[in-house]
Amino acid sequence: METPEFDLEFIKKKALEQFRSGKSLYGKEGAFAPLLKHFLEAALQAELEGHLDEEERNSGNRKNGKGQKQLKTSDGTLTIETPRDRTGTFEPELIRKRETILAESLESKILGMYGLGMSFRDISKHIKDMYDTDISHATLSAITDKIRPQIKEWQSRPLEELYTIVWLDAMHYKVKEDNRVVSRAVYNILGINRYGKKELLGMYVSQSEGANFWLGVLTDLKNRGVSDILIACIDNLKGFAEAINAVFTETEVQTCIVHQIRNSLKYVASKDQKEFMKDLKPVYQAVNKDLAELRLEELEEKWGRKYPVVLQSWRHNWEKLSTYFKYDVAIRRLIYTTNTIEGFHRQVRKVTKTKGAFTSDTALIKLIYLAHGNISQKWTMPLTNWAQTASHLAIWFDGRMKLDLN
After folding, report:
1. Which stretches are tagged as biased composition: Polar residues (predicted)?
2. Comparing C-alpha atoms, which of 243, 176, 256 is closest to residue 209?
């Protein structure tokens, strides 16, 4: 025997049973589903009545039957009847045309799962298991596309005038384009503001990494309000330091020691690498630049004839490699390598590692942006002992780094 739609006693009994068992009260079989369906349909009908005012009726517009819509909610899928008008000018506010997802919380859950690196297939399965709701890949793509304006706003947001230390590095990915797979470089700029807090200043996509593109990136930072960077930490990409100083003329550039070591070892025979590293450590671990240069001379005397290219590289890059010697230990640890931004990249790759090749540049940016949102939630506190570091920077960069003493 079919139960009347609004048998309140039946609804109360069923609701209590479902509540005690932990089942959804609003899903397809939920006790409150008929009430929610009735409310939505009545509200839509009232909206149509309001739309069909005297002017609309005088123009010949009338009610024109009803259609059906599957409405996905965080508690399941409902089938509701949607009223129509003859001219098709009725635009409901409660549930807009082509809107198939009622709960914003469901959209936020989908974005959260996507930001953790879950595929559309896995998200669809999870939503089906949790909410008894089927969501197509096209719908999921449309939901994640909703953050595109947010990304553009973030990429164009104003920045602070001063950043004390900035790390610049690129990540490399594969993207599908015109039925082929191509390489993409994602340029990231991670900075420390005057208060010691981390901030991702920008994220840019290009076909390859190069000094010319970095020049455009740095110009964009300046256009968005950055007038000074005290120290920039980079890898040993050719022309990179010159690109930085072309835009920020007073910035001191530190080339990553670890990158230099890795590149050196590529040209040292495996049987010599252990001994070579033993002799190299006193160079970059010296207490000051003078001692480091003495150790570099000793290294060259011992290994220069056997590995001339390696020692020439150290000599050629020495000024950019040795910038950190003028600072105290705390700042040296921050700037002598690009480990800070590489640590950020490692966290991003944990999210992107399941992707073979992204379907587009947009898909790549969306995922990295969402991953950054999760990672940056931990960037609420200044770096350890920042007060002391800031006071030292204020002395070294007198007039450029001003302390807030109020």
Report:
1. 70-80
2. 243
Residue 157 has pLDDT above 80, yes or no: yes
In the prediction, which pLDDT does 4 show?
43
In 3D, which of 202, 322, 200, 189 has the Cα closest to residue 252? Answer: 322
Q: Where are the domains of the chain?
A: 1-99, 103-146, 162-396
Q: Which amino acid is at 83?
A: P
How far is residue 365 from each of residues 102, 178, 224, measured CA to CA in Å? 27, 18, 20
Cα 406 → chain centroid = 34
> Tens of pLDDT along 2-32?
444 556 566 666 666 655 566 655 555 665 5
Each residue of 259-285: b (16+ CB within 10 Å) or e? bbbeebbeebeeeeeeebeeebeebbe
Give the other-Cβ count within 10 Å of 8's Cβ.
9
- Note whether 292 and 283 are within 8 A (CB): yes
What is the pairing mode between strands 198-206 and 76-85? Answer: unpaired
Task: Write the DSSP symbol of residue 31.
Answer: T
Token pair of 184 as six digits: 């993409």
As given in the structure block, the two tokens for residue 53 are 């005012």
